Amino acid sequence: MKLNPVTSILCITLGMALGVGCACVTPPQDHSQAGAVTPEPTPEQTPEQASVATLEPTLAPTDAPTPVPEAVATPEGEWGSFTIESGNSLWMIAGQSDVLGDSMLWPILYKANRDEIADPDLIQPDQVLKYPTNPSDAQKAEAVREAEETPRYVPHTQPRRDLPIYQ
To answer: Start-end ranges of CATH 3.10.350.10 in the chain?
Structure first.
């Protein structure tokens, strides 16, 4: 196998940045494919020279350093916000396609806003809720489990402390 210099440099740089090892090899290129186009030689080239020149690309020297890939923000680190209006519920807000897209994920909204919400049933207009824009599959599964275990709504004015979400 032949090492690709550009890939090798990028792999080594990334490996050093992340502190991991890396195997950067590329398979040899087969340039003898049927139907390959051979360019017409220039007056100073023989047909063989023209063919070889197209098969071996040259890299132009550059003074610019090879760019190091920047760390990509994890989707879990991105947050959105939603301002509660009269008549809203966490169930309804979570179900909106521009929020979480599934009403059963309302526990994610609650957990992200525990400092603002004492009880998931007792939210107030003009509260601004934050929510993760891309919760993990594990967070989603846990939220669905908690939503399924939560008893039906019963009108109340004081926070309930016996809900599964508090455990």
So the answer is: 75-166
Question: What tokens does 15 get?
Answer: 């490996």
Structure pTM?
A: 0.53
CATH of the structural domain 75-166, one choice from 2.70.130.10, 3.10.350.10, 2.30.110.10, 3.30.565.10: 3.10.350.10
pLDDT attached to residue 28: 47
**Residue appearing with tokens 């940045």:** 17
What would the pLDDT profile of 116-162 be if each residue is shown by its tens digit? 898 999 999 999 999 999 999 999 999 999 999 998 888 888 888 77
User: Residue 121 CB: number of other CB atoms within 10 A?
Assistant: 19
Q: Tell me the three state secondary structure of residue 112.
A: helix
Do the beta carbons of residue 111 and residue 67 sit within 8 Å? Answer: no
| Nearest alpha carbon to residue 87 among 116, 126, 113, 119 | 126
